[in-house]
Specification:
12 helices; mainly alpha
Length: 275
């Protein structure tokens, strides 16, 4: 695999890492960038190309694990065991699992259909616009006086309800973080609490999807493609580290509407310029 292919992998990793945890749809951006400019399917098979877009998410997942490492260790019972000074309970692993169930079940049932029919620029544009409308609605209706201001205050009912809304993100372009943060805000969470819960939930569901796709399509991999995957993974990891820290600092201030406007403008540009 030549140097140009490696550069394309780094670009796709950059797109993944910078957009995975912003409510703009990383999968949608990767599909658009690849279909419009990079054309990875010219040197990868269809299955390798689609799987690459899922597998490099492992780089972004690793970034989340590092940033939230103390939280994950605590949920697994491997932390310091210190209780909060105000006596409140901490977010439990069981709450995260409850939030994962709806999208996890639907993802398994419809994985083949999604891979076959929804990985295109046209379907991404639909997801970008509809997801943006949900984000605007969430900010207008539920973003004023949040009842739940920290991730540790989330209830099981809220966790499951956010998980139901996360099912929209199975449509490429809708955005996992966009749907879950919007859902959290509509359910009375602050933007930061919803974002924290979104990132924590992302680790098991993204890791599971990536590993499942990797195992399922292992027969289509070749040694020649390994540098491409490695470059994309490392690029996504580095840029995700940067973007996550920045996003968490700004989300309570800027909220969701600016991201929604960006999504609508992007969809319009892509449609009128390229389609």
């Amino acid at each position: 695999m030549d140097l140009l292919a490696i550069i394309k992998a780094i670009i796709l990793g950059f797109v993944e890492g910078m957009t995975e945890f912003a409510p703009v749809s990383s999968t949608g951006h990767m599909i658009i960038v690849d279909d419009m400019w990079l054309h990875s399917k010219e040197f990868l098979s269809k299955y390798e190309a689609n799987t690459f877009k899922v597998v490099i998410q492992l780089g972004s997942i690793l970034a989340v694990v590092i940033i939230f490492k103390d939280r994950f260790l605590e949920m697994l019972g491997l932390g310091s065991g210190k209780k909060k000074s105000d006596g409140q309970s901490r977010l439990k692993l069981s709450q995260v699992i409850v939030g994962l169930i709806p999208a996890g079940v639907l993802g398994i049932l419809f994985e083949d259909y999604i891979d076959e029919y929804l990985f295109s620029t046209e379907t991404v544009l639909i997801g970008l616009v509809i997801g943006a409308l949900l984000m605007i609605f969430a900010d207008i209706v539920g973003g004023k006086n949040p009842r739940t201001t920290a991730v540790d205050q989330i209830t099981y009912k809220q966790a499951f309800s956010i998980g139901l809304i996360q099912c929209f993100s199975l449509w490429p372009g809708f955005s996992r973080s966009g749907s879950t943060i919007s859902g959290g805000v509509l359910l009375g969470l602050s933007h930061r609490a919803a974002a924290d819960f979104t990132f924590i939930m992302a680790v098991p569901i993204m890791a599971g999807a990536s590993l499942l796709s990797l195992v399922k399509n292992l027969e289509y991999f070749s040694i020649d493609a390994l540098p491409f995957f490695a470059a994309g993974f490392l690029s996504a990891f580095v840029f995700a580290l940067l973007s996550i820290r920045f996003f968490l600092k700004m989300i309570n201030k800027v909220k969701l509407i600016p991201f929604a406007i960006y999504r609508i403008v992007l969809a319009g540009l892509i449609y009128f310029v390229f389609l």
